[in-house]
Write a structure and sequence with these properties.
- With 381 residues, this protein is of the alpha/beta class.
- Among the domains are: 4-42 and 196-254 and 320-370, Rossmann fold (3-Layer(aba) Sandwich), CATH 3.40.50; 81-179, no CATH class.
- Helices cover 28% and strands 24% of the residues.
- The strands form 5 sheets. It has a 7-stranded mixed beta sheet. A 5-stranded parallel beta sheet has the order 10-2-1-14-20. Strands 5-9-6 form a 3-stranded antiparallel beta sheet, covered by helices on one side.
- Helix 2 (63-70) packs across helix 10 (354-370).
- The protein starts with a strand and ends in an 11-residue tail after the last helix.
- Bound molecules: flavin-adenine dinucleotide.
Length: 381
Protein backbone atom coordinates (compact mmCIF):
# COMPACT_ATOMS: atom_id res chain seq x y z
CA UNK A 1 0.00 0.00 0.00
CA UNK A 2 1.46 3.42 -0.90
CA UNK A 3 1.73 5.86 1.95
CA UNK A 4 -0.78 8.69 2.03
CA UNK A 5 -0.27 12.41 2.45
CA UNK A 6 -2.90 15.00 3.25
CA UNK A 7 -2.03 18.60 2.34
CA UNK A 8 -4.00 21.59 3.65
CA UNK A 9 -3.83 24.50 1.20
CA UNK A 10 -2.79 24.73 -2.46
CA UNK A 11 -0.68 27.90 -2.34
CA UNK A 12 3.05 27.83 -3.13
CA UNK A 13 3.91 25.68 -0.09
CA UNK A 14 0.97 23.26 -0.37
CA UNK A 15 1.19 22.77 -4.15
CA UNK A 16 4.97 22.28 -4.06
CA UNK A 17 4.65 19.78 -1.19
CA UNK A 18 1.97 17.86 -3.09
CA UNK A 19 4.23 17.65 -6.14
CA UNK A 20 7.29 16.52 -4.20
CA UNK A 21 5.38 13.98 -2.09
CA UNK A 22 3.79 12.58 -5.23
CA UNK A 23 7.26 12.13 -6.69
CA UNK A 24 8.23 10.24 -3.54
CA UNK A 25 5.37 7.80 -4.18
CA UNK A 26 2.81 9.16 -1.72
CA UNK A 27 -0.86 9.12 -2.59
CA UNK A 28 -1.64 12.80 -2.08
CA UNK A 29 -4.93 14.50 -1.20
CA UNK A 30 -5.13 18.30 -1.11
CA UNK A 31 -7.89 20.39 0.48
CA UNK A 32 -8.08 24.01 -0.63
CA UNK A 33 -10.61 26.54 0.69
CA UNK A 34 -10.52 28.58 -2.53
CA UNK A 35 -11.88 27.48 -5.91
CA UNK A 36 -8.40 27.81 -7.51
CA UNK A 37 -4.80 27.08 -6.53
CA UNK A 38 -2.10 29.65 -5.82
CA UNK A 39 -3.74 32.07 -3.37
CA UNK A 40 -2.34 35.60 -3.92
CA UNK A 41 0.37 34.31 -6.28
CA UNK A 42 -2.23 33.24 -8.84
CA UNK A 43 -2.40 35.46 -11.93
CA UNK A 44 -5.82 36.97 -12.60
CA UNK A 45 -6.88 39.47 -15.28
CA UNK A 46 -8.32 42.96 -15.20
CA UNK A 47 -8.98 45.06 -18.32
CA UNK A 48 -6.77 42.67 -20.27
CA UNK A 49 -3.87 43.08 -17.80
CA UNK A 50 -2.42 40.13 -15.87
CA UNK A 51 -1.89 40.82 -12.17
CA UNK A 52 -1.41 39.13 -8.83
CA UNK A 53 -2.53 40.24 -5.35
CA UNK A 54 0.43 42.59 -4.80
CA UNK A 55 3.78 41.98 -6.50
CA UNK A 56 4.98 38.37 -6.37
CA UNK A 57 8.48 38.38 -7.78
CA UNK A 58 10.73 35.39 -7.26
CA UNK A 59 14.15 35.83 -5.70
CA UNK A 60 16.51 33.30 -4.21
CA UNK A 61 20.14 32.45 -3.64
CA UNK A 62 19.40 28.73 -3.07
CA UNK A 63 20.09 26.50 -6.09
CA UNK A 64 17.64 23.74 -5.16
CA UNK A 65 14.81 26.26 -4.65
CA UNK A 66 15.52 27.90 -8.03
CA UNK A 67 15.75 24.45 -9.67
CA UNK A 68 12.39 23.35 -8.21
CA UNK A 69 10.59 26.33 -9.77
CA UNK A 70 12.47 26.45 -13.07
CA UNK A 71 12.04 22.69 -13.63
CA UNK A 72 8.30 23.29 -14.10
CA UNK A 73 8.04 26.80 -15.59
CA UNK A 74 10.30 29.22 -17.44
CA UNK A 75 11.48 32.15 -15.36
CA UNK A 76 12.63 35.35 -17.03
CA UNK A 77 15.49 36.87 -15.07
CA UNK A 78 14.85 40.53 -14.27
CA UNK A 79 16.05 42.98 -11.69
CA UNK A 80 14.28 45.99 -10.35
CA UNK A 81 14.57 49.00 -8.10
CA UNK A 82 11.91 49.97 -5.61
CA UNK A 83 11.36 53.42 -4.19
CA UNK A 84 9.86 55.03 -1.11
CA UNK A 85 7.90 58.26 -1.27
CA UNK A 86 8.69 60.49 1.70
CA UNK A 87 5.95 63.14 1.79
CA UNK A 88 7.72 65.34 4.38
CA UNK A 89 10.57 65.80 1.85
CA UNK A 90 8.30 65.70 -1.23
CA UNK A 91 10.82 63.20 -2.63
CA UNK A 92 11.14 59.66 -3.94
CA UNK A 93 14.17 57.76 -2.65
CA UNK A 94 15.48 54.26 -3.24
CA UNK A 95 14.31 51.59 -0.82
CA UNK A 96 16.21 49.84 0.77
CA UNK A 97 17.74 53.13 1.90
CA UNK A 98 20.72 53.94 -0.34
CA UNK A 99 23.76 55.98 0.64
CA UNK A 100 23.66 57.86 -2.68
CA UNK A 101 20.31 59.44 -1.70
CA UNK A 102 21.42 60.77 1.69
CA UNK A 103 23.04 64.01 0.38
CA UNK A 104 19.80 64.76 -1.51
CA UNK A 105 17.80 64.95 1.73
CA UNK A 106 17.02 68.43 3.12
CA UNK A 107 18.22 67.41 6.61
CA UNK A 108 21.40 65.70 5.43
CA UNK A 109 23.62 67.47 7.99
CA UNK A 110 21.58 66.00 10.88
CA UNK A 111 21.43 62.56 9.26
CA UNK A 112 25.19 62.54 8.74
CA UNK A 113 25.78 63.50 12.36
CA UNK A 114 23.43 60.76 13.59
CA UNK A 115 25.12 58.18 11.36
CA UNK A 116 28.61 59.29 12.44
CA UNK A 117 27.59 58.83 16.10
CA UNK A 118 26.62 55.25 15.30
CA UNK A 119 29.64 54.33 13.19
CA UNK A 120 31.24 50.99 14.16
CA UNK A 121 28.58 50.35 16.85
CA UNK A 122 26.60 47.10 16.75
CA UNK A 123 22.86 47.79 16.39
CA UNK A 124 20.56 46.81 19.26
CA UNK A 125 18.71 43.50 19.05
CA UNK A 126 16.14 44.38 21.75
CA UNK A 127 13.30 44.87 19.28
CA UNK A 128 12.61 46.12 15.76
CA UNK A 129 12.39 49.81 16.71
CA UNK A 130 15.50 49.66 18.90
CA UNK A 131 17.37 47.97 16.04
CA UNK A 132 16.48 50.61 13.46
CA UNK A 133 17.01 53.61 15.75
CA UNK A 134 20.41 52.33 16.79
CA UNK A 135 21.35 51.49 13.20
CA UNK A 136 20.25 54.64 11.33
CA UNK A 137 19.26 57.30 13.90
CA UNK A 138 15.95 59.07 14.49
CA UNK A 139 15.82 61.24 11.33
CA UNK A 140 16.08 58.39 8.81
CA UNK A 141 13.95 56.17 11.07
CA UNK A 142 11.14 58.74 11.00
CA UNK A 143 11.35 59.14 7.23
CA UNK A 144 11.42 55.49 6.19
CA UNK A 145 10.52 53.09 8.98
CA UNK A 146 8.39 54.43 11.81
CA UNK A 147 4.99 55.15 10.25
CA UNK A 148 5.44 52.70 7.40
CA UNK A 149 6.06 49.76 9.69
CA UNK A 150 3.19 50.62 12.04
CA UNK A 151 0.74 50.78 9.16
CA UNK A 152 2.18 47.73 7.40
CA UNK A 153 1.67 45.52 10.47
CA UNK A 154 -1.38 47.37 11.88
CA UNK A 155 0.41 47.91 15.20
CA UNK A 156 0.52 50.74 17.71
CA UNK A 157 4.27 50.67 18.38
CA UNK A 158 7.30 49.25 16.55
CA UNK A 159 8.64 48.12 19.94
CA UNK A 160 6.06 45.32 19.63
CA UNK A 161 7.96 43.70 16.77
CA UNK A 162 10.72 41.22 17.43
CA UNK A 163 14.17 42.08 16.07
CA UNK A 164 14.55 38.38 15.24
CA UNK A 165 12.31 38.17 12.20
CA UNK A 166 13.72 38.28 8.69
CA UNK A 167 12.69 41.50 7.01
CA UNK A 168 13.93 42.71 3.63
CA UNK A 169 17.46 44.07 3.81
CA UNK A 170 18.00 42.90 7.38
CA UNK A 171 21.59 43.39 8.43
CA UNK A 172 22.26 46.08 5.78
CA UNK A 173 20.23 49.08 6.93
CA UNK A 174 21.87 51.38 4.39
CA UNK A 175 22.90 50.08 0.98
CA UNK A 176 26.12 51.12 -0.67
CA UNK A 177 26.69 50.40 -4.36
CA UNK A 178 24.00 48.31 -6.06
CA UNK A 179 20.53 49.84 -5.59
CA UNK A 180 18.63 46.94 -7.16
CA UNK A 181 16.18 45.27 -4.79
CA UNK A 182 17.72 41.81 -4.91
CA UNK A 183 20.82 42.53 -6.97
CA UNK A 184 22.84 40.07 -4.88
CA UNK A 185 20.77 37.02 -5.84
CA UNK A 186 18.70 35.50 -8.63
CA UNK A 187 15.51 37.45 -9.31
CA UNK A 188 12.87 36.75 -11.91
CA UNK A 189 9.27 36.29 -12.89
CA UNK A 190 7.49 33.63 -14.98
CA UNK A 191 7.80 34.18 -18.72
CA UNK A 192 4.20 33.07 -19.43
CA UNK A 193 1.43 35.67 -19.41
CA UNK A 194 -0.41 33.71 -16.74
CA UNK A 195 2.54 33.87 -14.37
CA UNK A 196 2.90 30.96 -11.94
CA UNK A 197 -0.47 29.36 -12.84
CA UNK A 198 1.05 26.50 -14.86
CA UNK A 199 3.37 25.78 -11.93
CA UNK A 200 0.35 25.17 -9.69
CA UNK A 201 -1.36 23.01 -12.35
CA UNK A 202 1.75 20.88 -12.82
CA UNK A 203 2.32 20.56 -9.08
CA UNK A 204 -1.20 19.34 -8.43
CA UNK A 205 -1.34 16.96 -11.37
CA UNK A 206 -1.46 13.46 -9.87
CA UNK A 207 -3.04 14.52 -6.56
CA UNK A 208 -6.68 14.35 -5.56
CA UNK A 209 -7.59 18.00 -5.04
CA UNK A 210 -10.73 19.16 -3.23
CA UNK A 211 -11.24 22.82 -4.13
CA UNK A 212 -13.73 25.00 -2.23
CA UNK A 213 -13.15 22.68 0.72
CA UNK A 214 -12.12 24.37 3.94
CA UNK A 215 -10.36 22.48 6.72
CA UNK A 216 -12.40 23.25 9.83
CA UNK A 217 -10.49 21.60 12.64
CA UNK A 218 -7.86 19.00 13.44
CA UNK A 219 -7.73 16.40 16.20
CA UNK A 220 -4.06 15.60 16.92
CA UNK A 221 -4.92 12.42 18.92
CA UNK A 222 -6.74 10.70 16.07
CA UNK A 223 -4.98 12.69 13.29
CA UNK A 224 -8.41 13.52 11.89
CA UNK A 225 -8.95 16.61 9.79
CA UNK A 226 -12.53 17.86 9.78
CA UNK A 227 -13.35 19.49 6.43
CA UNK A 228 -16.39 20.79 4.59
CA UNK A 229 -16.41 17.44 2.72
CA UNK A 230 -16.09 15.20 5.76
CA UNK A 231 -13.19 13.77 7.75
CA UNK A 232 -9.78 13.01 6.24
CA UNK A 233 -6.36 11.84 7.37
CA UNK A 234 -2.95 10.82 6.02
CA UNK A 235 0.28 9.14 7.11
CA UNK A 236 1.87 12.53 6.51
CA UNK A 237 -0.06 15.75 7.08
CA UNK A 238 1.24 19.03 5.67
CA UNK A 239 -0.53 22.16 6.85
CA UNK A 240 -0.09 25.51 5.09
CA UNK A 241 -3.15 27.23 6.61
CA UNK A 242 -3.61 29.18 9.86
CA UNK A 243 -2.89 26.92 12.83
CA UNK A 244 -5.20 28.70 15.28
CA UNK A 245 -8.18 27.75 13.08
CA UNK A 246 -7.11 24.11 12.94
CA UNK A 247 -6.72 23.84 16.70
CA UNK A 248 -10.00 25.57 17.60
CA UNK A 249 -8.36 28.86 18.74
CA UNK A 250 -7.57 27.20 22.07
CA UNK A 251 -4.67 29.59 22.74
CA UNK A 252 -6.50 32.53 21.18
CA UNK A 253 -6.46 34.05 17.72
CA UNK A 254 -3.06 34.65 16.13
CA UNK A 255 -2.72 38.29 15.09
CA UNK A 256 -2.44 39.07 11.39
CA UNK A 257 -2.71 42.22 9.31
CA UNK A 258 -4.73 41.92 6.09
CA UNK A 259 -4.71 43.85 2.85
CA UNK A 260 -7.32 45.52 0.74
CA UNK A 261 -6.20 45.54 -2.89
CA UNK A 262 -7.31 48.18 -5.39
CA UNK A 263 -6.81 47.85 -9.16
CA UNK A 264 -6.59 51.02 -11.25
CA UNK A 265 -6.01 51.25 -15.02
CA UNK A 266 -4.30 54.48 -16.08
CA UNK A 267 -4.47 55.90 -19.63
CA UNK A 268 -0.72 55.92 -20.15
CA UNK A 269 1.66 53.28 -21.47
CA UNK A 270 4.00 53.52 -18.47
CA UNK A 271 3.39 55.08 -15.07
CA UNK A 272 6.76 54.34 -13.48
CA UNK A 273 10.32 54.73 -14.77
CA UNK A 274 11.54 51.65 -16.65
CA UNK A 275 13.49 50.06 -13.81
CA UNK A 276 11.01 50.69 -10.96
CA UNK A 277 8.36 48.11 -10.07
CA UNK A 278 6.77 49.44 -6.92
CA UNK A 279 6.77 52.44 -4.60
CA UNK A 280 6.30 52.37 -0.83
CA UNK A 281 4.49 55.24 0.85
CA UNK A 282 6.14 55.85 4.20
CA UNK A 283 3.91 58.57 5.64
CA UNK A 284 0.33 58.75 6.88
CA UNK A 285 -1.17 57.86 3.48
CA UNK A 286 -3.58 54.93 3.87
CA UNK A 287 -1.70 52.77 1.36
CA UNK A 288 1.62 51.03 1.86
CA UNK A 289 2.62 50.16 -1.69
CA UNK A 290 1.72 50.89 -5.31
CA UNK A 291 2.83 48.44 -8.01
CA UNK A 292 2.91 48.81 -11.78
CA UNK A 293 2.26 45.26 -12.98
CA UNK A 294 3.66 45.67 -16.50
CA UNK A 295 7.10 46.13 -14.96
CA UNK A 296 6.83 42.60 -13.57
CA UNK A 297 4.78 40.82 -16.23
CA UNK A 298 6.21 42.49 -19.36
CA UNK A 299 2.63 42.80 -20.62
CA UNK A 300 2.29 45.12 -23.64
CA UNK A 301 -0.65 47.54 -23.82
CA UNK A 302 -1.42 51.22 -24.46
CA UNK A 303 -2.64 51.63 -20.90
CA UNK A 304 -1.23 50.33 -17.63
CA UNK A 305 -2.51 48.64 -14.48
CA UNK A 306 -1.42 49.68 -11.02
CA UNK A 307 -2.28 47.87 -7.78
CA UNK A 308 -2.66 49.70 -4.47
CA UNK A 309 -2.30 47.86 -1.16
CA UNK A 310 -4.11 49.20 1.90
CA UNK A 311 -3.66 47.53 5.30
CA UNK A 312 -6.89 46.16 6.66
CA UNK A 313 -8.25 44.46 9.77
CA UNK A 314 -9.93 41.99 7.38
CA UNK A 315 -7.79 39.24 5.86
CA UNK A 316 -4.84 37.37 7.32
CA UNK A 317 -1.88 38.02 5.02
CA UNK A 318 0.84 39.34 7.35
CA UNK A 319 1.57 37.36 10.57
CA UNK A 320 2.40 40.03 13.16
CA UNK A 321 5.93 39.24 14.35
CA UNK A 322 5.58 40.31 17.98
CA UNK A 323 7.03 38.32 20.87
CA UNK A 324 3.49 37.73 22.20
CA UNK A 325 2.27 36.24 18.92
CA UNK A 326 5.45 34.22 18.34
CA UNK A 327 4.95 32.68 21.81
CA UNK A 328 1.30 32.01 21.04
CA UNK A 329 2.35 30.17 17.88
CA UNK A 330 4.84 28.10 19.93
CA UNK A 331 1.92 26.91 22.09
CA UNK A 332 0.10 25.70 18.99
CA UNK A 333 3.28 24.11 17.68
CA UNK A 334 3.55 22.01 20.83
CA UNK A 335 0.26 20.35 19.81
CA UNK A 336 1.59 19.06 16.48
CA UNK A 337 1.63 15.24 16.42
CA UNK A 338 4.31 13.14 14.68
CA UNK A 339 4.43 13.50 10.91
CA UNK A 340 2.50 16.76 11.00
CA UNK A 341 4.40 19.48 9.16
CA UNK A 342 3.17 23.04 9.40
CA UNK A 343 4.92 25.15 6.77
CA UNK A 344 4.75 28.26 4.58
CA UNK A 345 3.76 31.76 5.68
CA UNK A 346 0.62 30.86 7.62
CA UNK A 347 1.64 27.38 8.72
CA UNK A 348 4.88 28.58 10.31
CA UNK A 349 3.56 32.02 11.31
CA UNK A 350 6.60 33.69 9.82
CA UNK A 351 7.11 36.58 7.39
CA UNK A 352 8.01 34.26 4.53
CA UNK A 353 8.21 34.71 0.77
CA UNK A 354 7.80 32.45 -2.26
CA UNK A 355 11.32 30.95 -2.00
CA UNK A 356 10.76 30.12 1.68
CA UNK A 357 7.52 28.31 0.84
CA UNK A 358 9.44 26.19 -1.69
CA UNK A 359 12.33 25.70 0.78
CA UNK A 360 9.89 24.45 3.45
CA UNK A 361 8.36 21.95 1.00
CA UNK A 362 11.78 20.61 0.01
CA UNK A 363 12.60 20.25 3.71
CA UNK A 364 9.40 18.30 4.42
CA UNK A 365 10.28 15.76 1.77
CA UNK A 366 13.85 15.55 3.06
CA UNK A 367 12.55 14.97 6.61
CA UNK A 368 10.05 12.35 5.46
CA UNK A 369 12.61 10.54 3.35
CA UNK A 370 15.35 10.65 5.96
CA UNK A 371 13.56 9.87 9.18
CA UNK A 372 10.12 8.31 8.74
CA UNK A 373 7.95 8.64 11.85
CA UNK A 374 9.95 11.54 13.20
CA UNK A 375 8.18 14.43 14.92
CA UNK A 376 8.37 17.66 12.90
CA UNK A 377 10.09 20.37 14.87
CA UNK A 378 12.56 23.10 14.02
CA UNK A 379 13.27 24.05 10.45
CA UNK A 380 9.97 23.22 8.91
CA UNK A 381 7.38 23.64 11.64
C1 LIG B 1 0.71 41.50 -0.92
C2 LIG B 1 1.81 40.46 -0.88
C3 LIG B 1 2.89 40.58 -1.77
C4 LIG B 1 3.91 39.61 -1.74
N1 LIG B 1 4.96 39.73 -2.60
C5 LIG B 1 5.94 38.80 -2.59
C6 LIG B 1 7.04 38.87 -3.48
O1 LIG B 1 7.14 39.79 -4.31
N2 LIG B 1 7.96 37.86 -3.45
C7 LIG B 1 7.88 36.83 -2.55
O2 LIG B 1 8.75 35.97 -2.55
N3 LIG B 1 6.87 36.74 -1.68
C8 LIG B 1 5.89 37.69 -1.69
N4 LIG B 1 4.85 37.58 -0.83
C9 LIG B 1 4.78 36.41 0.06
C10 LIG B 1 4.53 35.10 -0.69
O3 LIG B 1 3.70 35.28 -1.78
C11 LIG B 1 3.99 34.09 0.29
O4 LIG B 1 4.88 33.96 1.37
C12 LIG B 1 3.86 32.69 -0.30
O5 LIG B 1 3.17 32.73 -1.52
C13 LIG B 1 3.13 31.87 0.76
O6 LIG B 1 2.72 30.67 0.23
P1 LIG B 1 2.01 29.65 1.22
O7 LIG B 1 1.63 28.49 0.41
O8 LIG B 1 2.83 29.47 2.43
O9 LIG B 1 0.72 30.42 1.75
P2 LIG B 1 -0.55 30.98 0.99
O10 LIG B 1 -0.17 31.57 -0.31
O11 LIG B 1 -1.26 31.84 1.97
O12 LIG B 1 -1.41 29.68 0.68
C14 LIG B 1 -2.15 29.04 1.67
C15 LIG B 1 -3.30 28.32 0.98
O13 LIG B 1 -4.00 27.58 1.95
C16 LIG B 1 -5.38 27.80 1.81
N5 LIG B 1 -5.97 27.64 3.12
C17 LIG B 1 -5.76 28.38 4.23
N6 LIG B 1 -6.47 27.92 5.27
C18 LIG B 1 -7.16 26.86 4.81
C19 LIG B 1 -8.09 25.94 5.40
N7 LIG B 1 -8.46 26.05 6.68
N8 LIG B 1 -8.60 24.96 4.63
C20 LIG B 1 -8.24 24.83 3.31
N9 LIG B 1 -7.38 25.66 2.71
C21 LIG B 1 -6.85 26.65 3.45
C22 LIG B 1 -5.50 29.23 1.27
O14 LIG B 1 -6.73 29.42 0.59
C23 LIG B 1 -4.30 29.29 0.35
O15 LIG B 1 -4.59 28.90 -0.95
C24 LIG B 1 3.83 38.54 -0.83
C25 LIG B 1 2.75 38.43 0.05
C26 LIG B 1 1.76 39.39 0.04
C27 LIG B 1 0.60 39.26 1.00
Amino acid sequence: MPKTALVIGAGMAGATSAYLLNKEGFQVTVVEADSLAGAGVRTRWYGGHPYTFGPRVFFSREDDVIRQLTALIKIREYYTRTWTYVAQDGQLYHYPIADIDLPLMPDYATIKQELDERKDKTPSVDDFQAYWLSAIGPTLYNKFIDTYSKKMWGIESNHMLSAKFEWVNKGTPIRTGDTRLYGDQFQGYPEAADGYNTYFDKCLDGSTVHFSCRALGFDPETRTLRTERGEMTGDIIVNTGHVDTLFGYQYGKLRYCGRQFLKVVLPTEHAFPEDVTWIHYAGDEQHTRVTEFKQITNHKAKDTLIGIEIPSAEGREYPVQSEVEIKRFAQYKALFPANFFSIGRQGSFQYKGIPDAIRDSLDVVKAVGRKPGVRATAGVA
